Amino acid sequence: MSQTFNVYCDESCHLENDHQPTMILGAVWCPLEKEARSFNLYPGN
Question: The pTM is what?
Answer without folding.
Answer: 0.51
